[in-house]
Amino acid sequence: MHCGFVALIGAPNAGKSTLLNKMAGAKLSIVSPKAQTTRMRILGIVMRQQTQILLMDTPGIFKPKRKLDEAMVSAAWTGAVDADITLLLIDTTFGLTEENIEIINKLKETSRRIWVVFNKIDKINTQKLLPLTEEITALLPIEKSFMVSAKTGSGVDDLLDALAEDLPKGPWLYPEDDLTNLPDRLLAAELVREQIFMQTHEEVPYSVTAETESFKERPDGSVRIDVTIYVLRANHKAIIIGDKGQKIKMIGERARKELNRLLERPCHLFLIVKERKGWDGEKARLKAIGLE
Ligand SMILES: Nc1nc2c(ncn2[C@@H]2O[C@H](COP(=O)(O)OP(=O)(O)OP(=O)(O)O)[C@@H](O)[C@H]2O)c(=O)[nH]1
């Protein structure tokens, strides 16, 4: 038996959550075209041959402005420090950005073993990759590099095989059928937040947090889930509710469909929206989404 922690690290939007989901074969971490969608560490438990790969999705690394941002970036670095292998994910459509150079400089101090994963190769001419690889190896000692498309799955099997062979000997830490250690109530709140990221724009998604207030199993096998959406400002509340409640209805419908699939049972989802000034600086709110 082999078992080890692998952290996915990179700039916002590099495709870390998409890759985690592809490697885990399940939608565990929420994805949107907007930067900073992931706010906490999400563990995906992936069985490959006789190896349990404990794959950690982390928030994108960027310059923090508020307390929430600081907690997110700090969660990402803790993920890298704790990992046996750190996968540095590079969005090849942008190449070596300033953001990536900053991450690389800090990775040198925090991580022992770094593999580089060039992502989104479905979008680029792969000839661009050779100079990019050279630029990165000049900055950072990397053990291995991979070319993948997290979206199509191209190259993902090779990456999984390489991890399975390389992780240290040791007992599995989780039952082999588990997909994640995250509680269902946290996954439910995340799926609601994902829909807000998908269906609202500009500063609205960054004004929002979602918390599951209650999660009750019903005798018929279904589950009732009540989620509170906190927003920083009254006008954001109005945007999320929408004209005649159309927007919140759509958020709820889409999140419920995803939840049914993830929890493999019918879900009844109830949403309420509350204005809460300064939630993004409140310890309790950050703790509720797994941040310290
Ligand atoms: N074409 C293409 N798009 C991708 C690929 N991987 C991710 N994306 C898209 O890139 C966007 C960001 O993906 P995420 O997985 O949310 O990125 P992330 O690194 O987790 O982002 P943060 O939450 O900001 O840290 C989404 O629109 C994805 O669909 C890929 O391999 N190819």
Q: How would you summarize what this structure contains?
A:
The chain has helices at residues 16-24, 67-82, 98-110, 129-139, 156-166, 184-199, 234-241, 246-263, 283-288; strands at 2-10, 42-48, 51-57, 85-91, 114-119, 144-147, 208-217, 223-231, 267-275. By secondary structure, the protein is an alpha/beta fold.
Account of the 3D structure:
It is found in: Cytoplasm; Cell membrane. A hairpin with a 2-residue loop joins strand 2 and strand 3. The chain has 292 residues and is of the alpha/beta class. The protein has helices at residues 16-24, 67-82, 98-110, 129-139, 156-166, 184-199, 234-241, 246-263, 283-288, and strands at residues 2-10, 42-48, 51-57, 85-91, 114-119, 144-147, 208-217, 223-231, 267-275. The longest helix has 18 residues, at 246-263. The protein has 2 domains: 2-166, 3-Layer(aba) Sandwich (Rossmann fold); 184-288, GMP Synthetase, Chain A, domain 3, CATH 3.30.300. Bound molecules: guanosine-5'-triphosphate (GTP). The site of guanosine-5'-triphosphate has 24 residues, from helix 1.
